[in-house]
User: Which sequence fits this backbone?
């Protein structure tokens, strides 16, 4: 049984290797309690920690892994029993969210318009990722995908820039569908990724088919739903640091903190950092019912998300 668990915990094992010696020791000590644990996630993390330090367990070959930030908790009980629907799972942020959730052993249902595309880029079912096909513009697809989920992270966005209705369909109708289905299913938490500038009708991005105006309508649908929410509005998204530039630490402002003057200058942020913020928002009480604008700043102090959310 241990061998099966160890195999299915490939990513956790890698994380554990990175854990400090003291963390590893306490995890190994916890192994006898394993059979009493109801949470599969705990079991996976504990066993993988033991495996990483045991000479008679074969070393795992490193699977591809998204870079994990120091702030990700290794075994946070607040994620027990959580099953997350990730909408936009094949997008830049969505993919990073799925990978980070899977790396922590959290159950994920990844919603994508193309199961084939999703399967080619997301962790396998053995790492707790279930892929479902669906279009957020169709309520029936979304309602089906939502079944059994307790939380939702929405990282969809219009991908066809030539489609004048893309933002209306995805950011407005799509998000309305997701929120309605979440309400119907009794989902506890919805984290929605939109954008800096959403409160400002004059923000230049609106020249692109009114994209921010539709995102704002999607936000309002969530805020009116009564479901606990966190709206995460990132600055310019990057897949990797710009050549020769240092990536700063995450900083968070409240609604309308960044944008055109007199607001603060909107900066940029890695998609993996946005994903990390979304995963943290699922369980951080300080993120409850908040709109947060998120960028990075070189020289900013390296704060955890509890402090960051509390500052808004
Ligand atoms: N680019 C930036 O600098 C920037 C800055 C701030 C905020 N944002 C916003 O941040 C969010 C995440 O950005 P990103 O760059 O990670 O997004 P992205 O890579 O463009 O991915 C968007 C995702 O949405 C999915 N999607 C689109 N329409 C859908 C539909 N009708 N049904 C189901 N899925 C649908 C796409 O799936 P397919 O694979 O099927 O197309 C894709 O997985 C977006 O809302 C974006 O507008 C972007």
Assistant:
């Amino acid at each position: 049984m241990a061998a099966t668990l160890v195999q299915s915990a490939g990513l956790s094992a890698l994380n554990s290797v990175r854990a400090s010696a003291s963390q590893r020791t306490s995890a190994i000590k916890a192994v006898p309690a394993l059979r009493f644990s109801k949470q599969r996630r705990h079991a996976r993390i504990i066993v993988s920690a033991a495996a990483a330090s045991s000479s008679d367990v074969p070393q795992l070959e490193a699977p591809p892994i998204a870079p994990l930030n120091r702030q990700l908790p290794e075994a946070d009980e607040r994620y027990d029993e959580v099953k997350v629907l990730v909408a936009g799972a094949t997008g830049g942020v969505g993919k990073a969210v799925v990978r980070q959730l899977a790396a922590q052993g959290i159950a994920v249902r990844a919603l994508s318009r193309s199961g084939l595309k999703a399967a080619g880029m997301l962790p396998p079912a053995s790492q707790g990722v279930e892929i479902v096909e669906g279009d957020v513009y169709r309520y029936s697809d979304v309602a089906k995908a939502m079944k059994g989920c307790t939380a939702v992270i929405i990282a969809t966005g219009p991908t066809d820039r030539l489609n004048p209705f893309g933002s209306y369909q995805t950011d407005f109708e799509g998000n309305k569908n997701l929120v309605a289905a979440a309400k119907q299913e009794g989902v506890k938490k919805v984290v929605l990724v939109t954008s800096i500038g959403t409160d400002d009708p004059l923000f230049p991005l609106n020249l692109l088919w009114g994209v921010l105006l539709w995102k704002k309508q999607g936000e309002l649908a969530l805020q009116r739903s009564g479901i606990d929410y966190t709206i995460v509005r990132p600055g310019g998204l990057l897949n990797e640091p710009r050549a020769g530039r240092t990536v700063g630490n995450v900083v968070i402002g409240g609604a309308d903190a960044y944008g055109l003057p007199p607001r603060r200058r909107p900066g940029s942020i890695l998609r993996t950092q946005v994903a990390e913020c979304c995963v943290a928002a699922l369980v951080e009480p300080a993120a409850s019912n908040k709109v947060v604008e998120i960028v990075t700043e070189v020289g900013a102090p390296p704060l955890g998300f509890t402090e960051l959310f509390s500052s808004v």
Remarks:
- Strands lie at 83-87, 107-112, 129-133, 151-154, 189-193, 228-234, 236-238, 249-253, 268-270, 290-297.
- DSSP finds eleven helices and ten strands in the chain.
